[in-house]
Amino acid sequence: MAMAMRLPAITRAVTEVANSPVGFRRLFCSNASKFSFLSPQAETQTPARPQADPSTNLFVSGLSKRTTSEGLRTAFAQFGEVADAKVVTDRVSGYSKGFGFVRYATLEDSAKGIAGMDGKFLDGWVIFAEYARPREQSQSYQPQNNMSRPPYSPYGNR
């Protein structure tokens, strides 16, 4: 009976503490200002990746493992003439790596393809479409051939 009488008072006290600016921190933590997880600070904005120049080639990410190049072509063909569609696959399993490329015939079609498919569902997954960035030019490819010289020679260094 005594508990039933105290219940509204306890509920009111908990509600007041929860709605106060510092909440439970002041009650249970003597040095609450030291802990950043108790008082979240303003999130710092990470700089956005620079947008690629408009081109007819689109980079599509977020693809399902079951998405095929033909399925990708069919999905993007409703927004313009698709010249080529390619899902990048794993060499061993043959499944999609989760991204691919779509090449349109014109810039206008590629812009419509991005507007129409960015953030939409394809094979049950949300996909993202953006202009593809050109490949970075690397140094000339030099294959590492470890068999050119044995690690030791019984005849000494020649």
Automatic annotation (TrEMBL):
Q: Where is the composition biased (Polar residues)?
A: 137-148
Domain RRM intervals: 56-134
UniProt-recorded name of the protein: Organelle RRM domain-containing protein 2
Output the Gene Ontology terms for molecular function.
Answer: RNA binding
The UniProt keywords, alphabetically, are:
RNA-binding
Positions of the UniProt region annotated as Disordered = 135-158
SUPFAM superfamilies given in the database record: RNA-binding domain, RBD
Pfam families found in the cross-reference section: RRM_1
